[in-house]
């Protein structure tokens, strides 16, 4: 196995597949990148057995073959090489020769046959989604997944495909994020994707020029394909919560508020709140304004924001973190906050469309 | 005590003095910033008892007075406020009121009288140095100070003032950095400044427009003054090593080499060297070129660089870290490496001037 390709192209490919290299594994081969030379291209693959990434790049193939090399060391070497052609050659079953200008390396490698194969996904059950829409959908949901491994299904994001409608939903028992999108498909499936897959995917596609991501689903896996990259992830097993019944249809108070002002005020209020329990901030909604307060042993804050209120005045308290997380991913200048009672959830919605719904449970005030 | 000033000015001042706030102290007051309102300005002071920083800023003083407030919390609050005037008022001896637009904070504070006073330095024994020259001198020496607290004097940088000549020297037992500068002075003093003082100072003056830094020396302290800021540091006690006798005057081989090529080659060689002991890289200097090699259980590297050699060929080995540290601060395109034997130090010098000298001890090769 012997090939040559530009340093930049190779480095770009390493940077993509490196995102799925195992960092905490006892199997040395999973810390490696599988590199295969065939016909006119190279294939780089890395996997931690949960997520696998495969990237193809053009290269001058002098002889075909494959090896596995430590991802960290290989990445560091290629990163430090000059911007010129890199020649790589398998010398024997456990040694690779790397040359660029007057720099020459001999590095230990593993046998390619020991590297686990990625599952192959049938391309039939598939649909496409625009890169930008998909990135937004991920960004607006993935932060609301649970970190608690005791309910594994909640550590992922539900993808609900019902022909042309495509919803992504995450919830962690305290809050829920629902993003609606449109696609063209004839599928009817619900799958739950691990949050880590989506986070890495979102990072990789944000640097990609391709307009669409093709998604294929098999029984136990999802495959995301764009440009020369394939990301294959296992699906989370189990039934996702019936989220629709959690979202209230009615409200008693509707507040129209500037997203950025609300975020700034809550960020300031949380500076004192975070010292106490639950990052508690209190909202007092009246006809003229919304007052946000919080206090701890270090002091107290009082913030006022101008709002438009429809309906009843209300006093209610929240964990400020759950508010800030969502306000940071709202792209709309103004949002609605829909309240019912101070022990029922608040619903966030953009003023100008119905694409996004975010729900947070309040904290019961001791005076209730 | 009651004043008003623009959020940005106050934040800038906090960012400056915050660099000397104690992070590991059991005295809560040392985690604070002392704020004093007098006449038409505010004075902010922070100290960890080793380094103290004082900054003055213009403010509208409604009534005079002082308090001490937790630096971290105060910094976070001011940073999050809108870009507008901030009003601050001492309500009682342990509570401060902060207001900006519709945001209001009440925060606990300490009594100003409990804050340690900075030493006052007599302005007589002083000289000035250009901001840019001083920053370069710090950058080119401070990295070579020792991290080993068992010889405290080596954790600082020697400043040697002999009328118009001003040298800064750092050494750690394995390498030495000497930077020569020019000033106008009638002083004749040697003082050792803690490396931390110089690192913080360098960060602060790099954002400063003032052309000169005024340096005043008392028996136990140094004061650095520029714009509205004073940094006062204790001096390290004890006699600095007579560094002049360490620097060889003669050499047997002189290599002229491109600084950037050498740095790149050593960085690549050290990718494999760092896995072994001492980051060992080996240099083989011959008439045509210099070969750099290193190896570990993971593999080996071979690098060639074109050089001009005057004198004898030589084989010698070094800790690559000591080479890289110095090559990163050399501003010259080409440098000389002066070798004597493979058990005596190498000297780095710029090709075009005599401002900088760097010395590294070699590692004895087992074959010697």
UniProtKB/TrEMBL annotation, chains A, B:
CDD domains (alphabetical): beta_clamp
Subcellular location: Cytoplasm
GO annotations of cellular component type: cytoplasm; DNA polymerase III complex
Assembly information from the UniProt record: Forms a ring-shaped head-to-tail homodimer around DNA.
Tagged with keyword Heme: no
Ranges for domain DNA polymerase III beta sliding clamp N-terminal: 1-119
Family of this protein: Belongs to the beta sliding clamp family.
One Pfam family it belongs to: DNA_pol3_beta
Chief location category: cytoplasm
Lineage top rank: taxon: Bacteria
Domain DNA polymerase III beta sliding clamp C-terminal positions: 244-364
Name of the featured protein: Beta sliding clamp
GO terms under biological process: DNA strand elongation involved in DNA replication
